[in-house]
């Protein structure tokens, strides 16, 4: 709220009121926006994102992806450990049991100290159990089945977090409505600042795009094809021609400057032979009905982009300043 430039790219009702008020005083209407301006300015209800909103979503998405990956790893390890123990227990219970190997029993009869010692030594080599089959079931692990409801809750929370992340930019746009309700003076000041900024950018954006198209046309016209491209063009000329015909049939003709789709009613092609420039009515009118590709910038009103300079050889035969002063002073003739 304290900055006039922060997120001040949305078209609000205040801007519409300012535009109508200026139009009543004889100014050109600012709305609706031109084709080149719609990429930068948008309505509050637009689904498109600004650059600031897009960067914010990318940062939050990276954090959410890391968190979801950690939760998935924890759940996967939990279920994987349960599956491993369950598999061990299942196959362990399928065993028939382990038989006690055969052994030789030594029985010592008689009494006395020596007999007792020998009897103790013989008992040490006897098995601990007298059963013929050993039961290993008490030694097998008994895993606890995981609670799948917890997995479902984690999944729902992750989906809710992603939903909040995607809806966050659109929810934050309501700050403009809240500011307009509680601080109408500040909202009008920001709206006036946006109006002036769009008015100033309207001319500069159009000139920038027009100069870029002119430079691209001059660059592609002077570039020579390499040998490899020429060889491929000669070999596949028929295929290239068929592809170009298909693309021409599918795509519509667009304005050279703003890229708007053209119809027969608003199509203004260049009269110069060989020039590919074609313009809509607004762009052609702003360029003083001149093509920006084959004409000089001065001809279509761009006086700040005068790139053509006269050759100094044209003035080689003109008299210099010293010669002119000498002729005026001495009365001589050149």
TrEMBL record:
Domain named Dendritic cell-specific transmembrane protein-like: residues: 6-195
Basic and acidic residues biased stretches: 315-326
InterPro entries hit by this protein: CSR-E3_Ligase_Protein (IPR051856), DC_STAMP-like (IPR012858), DCST1_C (IPR058842)
Keywords (A to Z) from UniProt: Membrane, Transmembrane, Transmembrane helix
Domain E3 ubiquitin-protein ligase DCST1-like C-terminal: from-to ranges: 254-297
Membrane topology field: Multi-pass membrane protein
CC per GO annotation: membrane
UniProt key word Secreted: no
Main localization category: membrane
Compartments reported by the entry: Membrane
Segments of this protein annotated with the region Disordered: 310-334
Residue intervals passing through the bilayer: 61-85, 151-172
Protein name per UniProt: Uncharacterized protein, isoform D
Encoding gene, per UniProt annotation: Dsim\GD13546
């Amino acid at each position: 709220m304290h900055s006039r430039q922060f997120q001040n790219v949305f078209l609000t009702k205040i801007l519409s009121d300012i535009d109508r008020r200026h139009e009543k005083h004889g100014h050109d209407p600012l709305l609706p926006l031109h084709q080149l301006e719609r990429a930068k300015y948008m309505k509050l209800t637009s689904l498109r994102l600004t650059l600031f909103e897009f960067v914010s979503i990318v940062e939050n998405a990276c954090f959410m992806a890391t968190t979801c990956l950690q939760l998935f790893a924890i759940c996967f390890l939990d279920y994987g450990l349960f599956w491993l123990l369950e598999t061990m227990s299942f196959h362990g219970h399928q065993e028939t049991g382990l038989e006690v190997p055969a052994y030789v029993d030594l029985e010592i009869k008689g009494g006395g100290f020596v007999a007792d010692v020998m009897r103790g030594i013989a008992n040490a080599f006897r098995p601990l159990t007298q059963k013929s089959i050993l039961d290993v079931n008490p030694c097998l692990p008994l895993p606890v089945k995981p609670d799948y409801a917890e997995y479902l809750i984690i999944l729902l929370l992750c989906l809710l977090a992603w939903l909040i992340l995607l809806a966050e930019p659109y929810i934050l746009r309501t700050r403009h409505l809240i500011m307009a309700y509680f601080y109408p003076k500040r909202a009008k000041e920001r709206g006036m600042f946006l109006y002036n900024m769009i008015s100033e950018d309207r001319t500069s954006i159009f000139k920038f795009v027009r100069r870029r198209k002119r430079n691209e046309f001059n660059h592609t016209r002077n570039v020579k094809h390499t040998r490899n491209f020429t060889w491929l063009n000669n070999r596949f000329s028929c295929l290239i021609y068929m592809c170009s015909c298909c693309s021409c049939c599918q795509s519509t003709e667009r304005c050279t400057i703003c890229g708007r789709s053209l119809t027969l009613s608003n199509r203004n092609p260049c009269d110069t032979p060989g020039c590919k420039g074609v313009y809509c009515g607004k762009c052609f009118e702003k360029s003083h009905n001149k093509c920006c590709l084959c004409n000089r910038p001065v001809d279509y009103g761009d006086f700040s982009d005068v790139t053509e300079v006269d050759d100094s050889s044209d003035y080689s035969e003109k008299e210099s300043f010293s010669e002119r002063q000498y002729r005026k002073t001495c009365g001589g003739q050149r």
